[in-house]
């Protein structure tokens, strides 16, 4: 008896990676482009002093920020912003972990934490200026004072809500406190911590501008107010555009870090959705 075998060739499906990238790009830039087109048409039909056309703002952006102003105003502002964010993350995670692990400390500090969290950070600006003067350190302190709270409170809640069964299991296996903190508590609290960091980034950017509005002679916030007071409208809008681009850059960097830190968390979510 002769056996005949044949190979069934299944056509290989094309990878949809590039298609997904194209769709994501279209969704990301589609609405902004549409709004820019509407803005440009409206500015052409009905010109307004305080709403110049997008091309005029783009020209002002290139003339204003691509040059010495980037070194003298933008880079110092970004430096203070980066230092403030790093200090806020460090203080928020360390202090939040200590408070979350100690019930008596949490109950002792909770009323005070809620009080200071409710105080708007810009209100503290005159006090910080009186204590420290109009220095770079003052601007960094203003950023830290306002942006540390989401990280601190989310860390406290994340540490406090660590699964009690897993905690008892770790104790029964004689896991040291350091190992329990590293391999159980912080990973369990990391989704809440990253959510607090996301909120703090936008707050830090806002406070960077506020700290430069009235008590500074340089910086991105100072330049925007300077343009507004001197009726340099296109230049003022270019500063706002630069702030938006900085916000997008911060969000992109945070997205990369979050995907790396929370790989296990997103993997669990994918399995649950499957």
TrEMBL record:
Compartment(s) where it occurs, according to its Swiss-Prot or TrEMBL record: Cell membrane
Family matches, as CDD domains: TM_PBP2
SUPFAM superfamilies xref list: MetI-like (SSF161098)
Membrane topology: Multi-pass membrane protein
Transmembrane segments: 21-45, 81-101, 113-131, 137-156, 201-224, 236-257
InterPro entries for this protein: MetI-like (IPR000515), MetI-like_sf (IPR035906)
Domain (ABC transmembrane type-1) ranges: 89-261
Keywords in alphabetical order: Cell membrane, Membrane, Transmembrane, Transmembrane helix, Transport
Protein name: ABC transporter permease
Organism, scientific name: Microbacterium ureisolvens
Organism placement in taxonomy: Bacteria, Bacillati, Actinomycetota, Actinomycetes, Micrococcales
